[in-house]
Every structure is written in C-alpha cells, then in structure tokens.
Design goal:
The chain has helices at residues 2-27, 49-60, 101-107, 121-124, 143-154, 172-182, 207-216, 255-261, 293-300, 359-381; strands spanning 32-33, 36-40, 63-64, 78-83, 90-94, 110-115, 119-120, 136-138, 158-162, 185-194, 226-230, 235-239, 244-253, 266-268, 273-277, 282-291, 307-313, 320-323. By secondary structure, the protein is an alpha/beta fold. It has a ten-stranded mixed sheet, with helices on both faces. Strands 12-11-10-15 form a four-stranded antiparallel sheet, with helices on both faces. The termini are far apart.
Length: 383
C-alpha cells in the first residue's frame, strides 16, 4: 500500500511544483516595452474574446507598456465597454478624439485593431429576433480611426488590422482610404466554415436560408459541413461532398515565411474571413479550400478562387499588416499567461490532428504576433 501512496504523493508534488517553476521561468524573461493602442469595438460581453488572446500573448511573451505594467484585456483597449450590472445593459465608449490625434500618434509605438464590427441591438438585448442586421449601437472604422492609421503610417510605426475592418458597418469612404494605405483591395466577399449547414442546428444563422431562397428560388437543403460566402446581396454555399472534398479551410504558409514568423505550414481555421486582392502587398500566408470541380466552377462564376490571402504585408517598410481572418478570437485560459511552457500541455490545449482548429492559436497566431512585435521592439531599441 505504501508504494502506490508514494507514487500518488510524488505526482501531487509535481503537479504543484510545475506552476511555480513555470512562473519563475516566465518572470525572468526580459521585458519588451512597447506602447500599443488596441481597438475592439465588438465587446457584447465581459469575456472580451475578440482581443483577449492578443493580451494573453502580449503578457505571455513579456511585452509590457513603457511604464512597466502588463496589458489587461479588461481595461487596456479602446472601444465598447459593458458595465456592471450586466442585466442593466449599460455600457460606455472608450475613444480617442481628433484633438488627441497628434499627441497619441507621437507616443504610440503600434496600433492593433482587432475588430470593428461593433455591437448591434439584436446582439446586446437578448431575446430579440436574430435577423442578419439590426440597428447599430456602436461600430465601424471611423474617420478618427483612419486619421490615426494615417499618422502612424506616416511615422513608419507598426499597424495591424483584422478581418471586417473594411466591410460593413465601416463607411465606404473610410474603407477605400484604408485599403489604399494598406495596398490591398476588398472584393466585398466574406466567408465562414460551418460544421453543419443544417438550418436546424444550434446557433445556425437562419437568415441565410431566407437569403438563399430569395437569390436562387429554391429551398435550403444543405446539411453537411461547408463554407458560406456572403457579399452585400449574394450568397454562395459550398457543401462537403459536392463542392468541397474537405470543408475545413486551411491557412498555408511557404517554408521561407514559416521560418521567418515561426508558424506551422498548415493550420485549420474555422472562423470568419474576408477576401481581398493583395495588389502590391506581400502575401505571407494564404487560405486554401479543398474544392471539387463543381466547387471551382461555382467560385469562378463569382470571380472567386480557392486560394486567397490570409496575411498581407506592406512590402517596403514591412510594418503594415492586414489579417483577413478573425485571428484574435481565440479561447485562452488567463491562468496560463504567466506560465512559461504552458504550450507543453499538448493534447489538452491542442493536438496533431490537421483539422483541429485549436492548433491555430498555438501554431500560428501566437508565434506570428510574437515575431512581429519582437522584431519591431528590436528596431525601436536601435533608434
């Protein structure tokens, strides 16, 4: 009896010691001071999932504000801020203003806009019919946002924008000017993977079926996994087995860029994305869909392709990035952000399965963000 108890005791000690050792290892990592303006206009709940994994990564990799403090997902962002008690549906807006612009641009090292879609009446007030669009409470890239982008780009500072910044509810003028600054062109198409296209599935957006019936004059009969592409007035449905050999989109990165950014050559991605033309921008990674001949025909008939950019980078100064996917939306555990080696819990956090979307954060987003900000911090030191 003593031997099993001894083994159990050793296991318990190791479990207790691991967090202590991991925290010590994390605490001795050299801090990397950088002042980042983070914008998230889509915060309908306190989980702040649209920017939480960014803050997690910054803390985990020891990026800190120049005053030495860590970044907080609860307070260190501009945008929509729900207030307690939640059942009162109160909120406030943390915004920068035109008269702050020059001073803010001078003291800021980098800008990361994680989400501008915003918060709408149907999202904020539960129990309301879930139509595609309702009255906007807050959202869209504003003229002030564009002016900050312009000032920072003129000062050759780091700028990262994500999916949906160029699309509704951003006004066409702001979208066009931002596309010019980033050297890309929006096609107006967005897409998303669905594990089931069955309209009876939980949380399936039923308004899509109405949009499909109106456009094609036929009922929605899709039930398998698939990808839905949307534009302002059109919808395209690609179903596994008919249009896709495998419905899960993948982000592919060439060997050279894998080495440069520390990312995996292929990762599954199950969230929203938009389709842009890279123009003169460098394509760091691209989306690839496993289409059939029928899928290629359907995409081509709508001027779309099975491959399109996932990350675009301005080619000269290499400090302007556009992520075409909803990259910063990842489930992370706050407890792990100050533990060195937390990624080592492979099998619990993620797996080797090629279609496991959990791999995206650990094998793509986190190393990509770490590389971009680390390289930039190094350049700041050399000034």
């Amino acid at each position: 009896m003593k031997k099993p108890l001894l083994i159990i005791g050793i296991i318990i000690i190791l479990v207790l010691i691991f967090p202590v050792i991991s925290f010590i290892r994390w605490s001795i990592i050299e801090k990397k001071p950088i002042d980042i303006v983070i914008v998230d206009k889509t915060v309908p709940s306190l989980d702040r999932i649209k920017h939480k994994s960014l803050m997690w990564t910054l803390t985990s990799e020891r990026f800190v504000k120049k005053n030495g403090s860590s970044y907080s997902s609860a307070s260190d962002y501009y945008g929509f801020i729900p207030t307690r008690p939640l059942n009162k549906k109160g909120f406030r807006k943390n915004e920068y203003h035109l008269n702050d612009m020059m001073a803010l641009a001078d003291k800021t090292d980098a800008l990361y806009i994680t989400d501008t879609y915003g918060v709408f009446f149907n999202d904020w007030y539960s129990g309301v019919n879930r139509s595609r669009r309702s009255r906007k409470i807050y959202g869209g890239l504003s003229n002030t946002d564009y002016l900050l982008i312009n000032e920072l780009k003129n000062k050759n500072k780091l700028i990262i924008l994500e999916y949906n910044t160029l699309d509704f509810p951003t006004a066409e003028f702001e979208s066009f000017r931002t596309q010019e600054k980033f050297g890309i062109s929006s096609t107006g198409w967005t897409g998303k993977y669905y594990s089931s296209l069955d309209s009876a599935s939980r949380d399936f957006p039923v308004w899509m079926t109405a949009m499909y019936r109106k456009q094609y004059r036929m009922p929605w009969k899709f039930t398998k996994p698939g990808i839905v592409f949307l534009s302002e007035k059109n919808i395209i449905v690609l179903e596994e087995g008919t249009h896709l050999r495998n419905a899960m989109p993948h982000i592919m990165t060439a060997e050279e860029n894998c080495g440069k950014f520390g990312v995996a050559p292929s990762v599954a991605f199950d969230r929203c994305f938009d389709v842009v033309e890279p123009l003169e921008s460098n394509v760091i990674s691209k989306f690839r869909l496993e289409t059939t001949a029928a899928g290629d025909t359907l995409l081509n008939s709508n001027s779309l392709s099975k491959e399109f950019p996932a990350v675009c980078m301005e080619p000269v100064n290499k400090r302007t990035f556009y992520f075409t996917g909803d990259f910063a939306t990842n489930k992370v555990y706050t407890i792990g952000e100050k533990l060195k080696g937390f990624k080592g819990l492979k099998g619990i956090l993620y797996s080797d399965k090629p279609d496991d979307p959990r791999n995206f954060f650990w094998s793509y987003y986190k190393p990509m963000i770490n590389t971009i900000f680390s390289d930039y911090c190094t350049s700041l030191k050399s000034k």
